[in-house]
Amino acid sequence: MKLKGSFQSLLLGCLLVAGCATSGTQSPNVDVTGEWVGEWVNATGSGGISMTLKQVDGIVTGEVVVLPASLGMSGAAHGSVEGNMLSIAYQGSGGNLTVRGDEMSGRSLLGSTLTLRRR
């Protein structure tokens, strides 16, 4: 009987931890669906970036094109939106961007500043 009680306590503990882990997420209050065009800038240079995104609830998918093409960072993208924050990953990088209307800006995982406008 003691084993059963210990198992129940363990199960209850796991459920409580799982519940706490998911309670911090925010519903999206922006929709990033569409075509976004802009630039990236860092200490060594700059270039163009465009994103064609589709958002369903808080899940984002799409394509990212990073120029110059020789960087090899263009391709499929996936991410999520919480509140007005877009967290996105794509070939070789990604970033966290704050969305304000038809503009988004933030930093890439590689340290570049990203600024984009919806087309």
The helix-and-strand class reads alpha+beta
Query: Could you tell me the number of beta strands?
Result: 8
The helix content is: 10-25%
Query: What overall geometry do the principal axes of the alpha carbons give?
Result: globular
How far from one another are the termini?
A: 65 Å
Largest sheet: 8 strands, antiparallel, barrel
Biggest sheet, spatial arrangement of strands = 1-2-3-4-5-6-7-8
Radius of gyration: 19 Å
What is the percentage of strand-forming residues?
Answer: over 45%
Order of helices and strands: HEEEEEEEE
Task: State the name of the first-level CATH class.
Answer: Mainly Beta
**Average pLDDT:** 86
Detail the poorly predicted runs: 5-23
CATH topology: Porin
How would you portray this structure in words?
This protein has 119 residues and is an alpha+beta fold. It has a single domain (34-118), classed as Beta Barrel (Porin). 18% of the residues lie in helices and 53% in strands. It has one helix at residues 2-22, and strands at residues 34-42, 45-56, 59-66, 75-82, 85-90, 93-100, 103-108, 113-118. A hairpin with an 8-residue loop joins strand 3 (59-66) and strand 4.
